[in-house]
Amino acid sequence: MDLYQELILEHSKRPHHAGLREPFDAEVHHINPTCGDEVTLRVDVTGAGDDAVVRDVSYAAQGCSISVASASVLADEVIGHTVGEALETFAAMREMLTSRGTVTGDETVIGDGVALSGVSKYPARVKCALLGWTAFTDALARSGVDISTTTTDSTTRQGVSS
Amino acid sequence: MTSATAPFTDQELTALRGEFPILTRTVRDSRPLVYLDSGATSHKPVAVLDAERAFYEQHNAAVHRGAHQLAEEATDDFEVARATVASFVGAPADEVVFTKNATEAINLVAYAFSNASPSEDAKDERFVLRPGDEILVTEMEHHANLVPWQELARRTGATLRWIPAEADGALDLSGLGDLLTERTKVFAVTHVSNVLGTVNPVTELAARAHAVGALVVVDACQSVPHLPVDVATLGADFIAFSGHKMYGPMGVGVLWGRAELLEVMPPFLTGGSMIELVTMERSTYAPAPQKFEAGVPNAAQAVGLAAAVRWIEAVGIERIHAHEAALVERLLSALAKRPWVRVVGPAAGQLRGGAVAFVVDGVHAHDVGQVLDDAGVAVRVGHHCAWPLHRAVGAAATTRASFAVYNTTAEVDALVEALDRVPVVFGLDLERAAS
Question: In this entry, which stretches build a coiled coil (chain B) (predicted)?
Answer without folding.
Answer: none
